Amino acid sequence: MKIFKDNSGREWRISITVETIKRVRSLCGVNLLDAIKIEKDGVKADLIDQISNDPVLLVDIIYSICRPQAEEEKVSDVQFGESMTGDTVDAATDALLEELINFFPEAKKKVLRLVLESARRLKRQANVTVDNLISSGALQKNLSQMENDVSASFTKLPGTSE
Q1: Angle in degrees, CA 114, 7, 32, rounded to 5
Q2: Are 119 and 93 in contact (CB under 8 A)?
Q3: CB burial string 10-49: b at 16+ within 10 A, e below
Q4: Pick from 112, 83, 119: which is nearest to 10 by CA?
Q5: Domain segments of the chain as ranges
Q6: Are 32 and 47 in contact (CB under 8 A)?
Q7: Confidence (pTM)
Q8: How is the chain classified by DSSP, letter by letter?
Q9: pLDDT tens, 50-80?
Q10: Which of 56, 83, 63 lies closest to 14, judged by CA?
Q11: How far apart are alpha carbons 78 and 131 in whole angstroms?
Q12: At CB < 8 A and 24+ separation, what contacts does 24-33 make?
């Protein structure tokens, strides 16, 4: 079981069981068992890609997993969603993926762990790239140029017809 905190300071427990998978299927129309598919032509992680690019779906899935606890604590899906932003979503995602890995049998577990580590490496590289852009001044230079371009376009507006 993995635990994360939302922006309101509440602790949420993520545990993936067969019952959890059934609940997520029923409430979200998502089959967590499709997180990874090992096929003849390679590995597919379409569901992981989908939830990585859709934070609304991701939070719906996490709420579905945490629903029994949310009902106990009288936290609605709206309240849950309102308490999930930024770093909280990252922490919940990590908890979800770690628990999902632990649910699968060894062969899928190994592959899913490799996919997850690859995604984490890409995220670290993206963070380094952004940090380098900021520290080098290149990002500020690009933003200033965009501001100048927008400002110049307003000065080139055609005059009004009389």
Answers
A1: 35
A2: no
A3: bebebbbeeebbebbeeebebebbebbeeeeeeeebebbe
A4: 83
A5: 2-155
A6: yes
A7: 0.73
A8: -EEEE-TTS-EEEE---HHHHHHHHHHHS--GGGG-EEETTEEE-HHHHHHHH-HHHHHHHHHHHHHHHHHHTT--HHHHHHT--HHHHHHHHHHHHHHHHHHS-HHHHHHHHHHHHHHHHHHHHHHHHHHHHHHHTHHHHHHHHHHHHHHHHHHTPPPPP-
A9: 888 899 999 999 999 999 999 999 999 999 9
A10: 63
A11: 34
A12: 24/61, 24/64, 24/65, 27/60, 27/64, 27/67, 28/57, 28/60, 28/61, 28/64, 30/57, 30/61, 32/61, 32/100, 32/103
Residues written for the chain:
162
Q: How many CA within 13 A on the CB side of residue 78?
A: 0
| Cβ(29)–Cβ(61) below 8 Å | no
Residue with tokens 């309102």: 82
Is the pLDDT at 162 greater than 60? The verdict is no
